[in-house]
Amino acid sequence: MSGQTSPSPVLSPGFERARRLSRLLSVILTVAFWLTALLLLAAPAVLLLPQALTFTLNGVAVHVAQGALGRRALIAVAVVLFAVPLLFVLHNARRVFGKFSVGEVFAEETIACIRAAALWLMLAALATTVGENLLDLAAGAQPPYAHGGLKFSWLIFGAVTYVAAYVMAEARRMGNENAGFF
Description:
- The structure is a single chain.
- The chain has about 180 residues and is mainly alpha-helical.
- It has one domain.
- It has helices spanning about 15-50, 70-100, 110-140, 150-180, and strands at about 55, 60-65.
- A two-stranded antiparallel sheet has the order 1-2.
- The chain starts with 14 loop residues before the first helix and ends with a helix.
């Protein structure tokens, strides 16, 4: 049965509102995806900028002196750690809502995208924690850092979403099994 997709069940006319909202969410997530991709593309620029770099970290202006390549490298790595998992979360989430917008609610591919988004969200929680610590280190902060707390809400939401995808897969299996009786 794996690898096969079966047609989605006939959706009620009331689903039309969810379809429209899913289209809107898909567009919003696509814009966020491309903005995050631009951020990722800018990461190497941090290493190449010859002038001093100033950025805000937790409401505090941080100044990285000209020529401080080690600090710039930490910032670039932190940006990559923030952006890469987020790109995968956004990519899979926009695919989910794209599928919902065309009525593919219980399709295997939709469920797989939900699982992937959930896994990447949990990974993003861990990567963001490391990235925040790297930014604090680049800013010259001394441990314990102001940031660095694990994103428990992201981990929990990712785990809940992952389990919900399994529930959807089981509902799909049961629906297919029951369809064979009629």
